[in-house]
């Protein structure tokens, strides 16, 4: 197969072994497992506690972000920002300052 690929890249005709001839096959390297590595045999309770605190922190941050996103959506800020950005995108002559653009509408 490799000779066919090399032949395709170089433009040469591949030389295939005759039928029935002995073709040496290279030994394949051992396959690596796709399973995640197992945790260490001994893990202290402190490690698990630290991981739990970290996960709780991420969940709290995600919850706050979600609340803020809902607040922006309810108040119409997301729709207004989207309309301004679409208008700027569709503007044939872009302004020098994109930050000042919304104030000139």
UniProtKB/TrEMBL annotation:
Its main location: nucleus. Keywords: Nucleus. One of its GO terms (molecular function) is transcription coactivator activity. Residues 13-44 are annotated as: Disordered. The keyword Nucleus applies. Signal peptide: none annotated. GO terms for cellular component: nucleus. It comes from the Eukaryota. The keyword Nucleus applies. It is found in: Nucleus. Residues 30-44 have a biased composition (Low complexity). Belongs to the AMY1 family. This is c-Myc-binding protein. It comes from Marmota monax (Woodchuck).
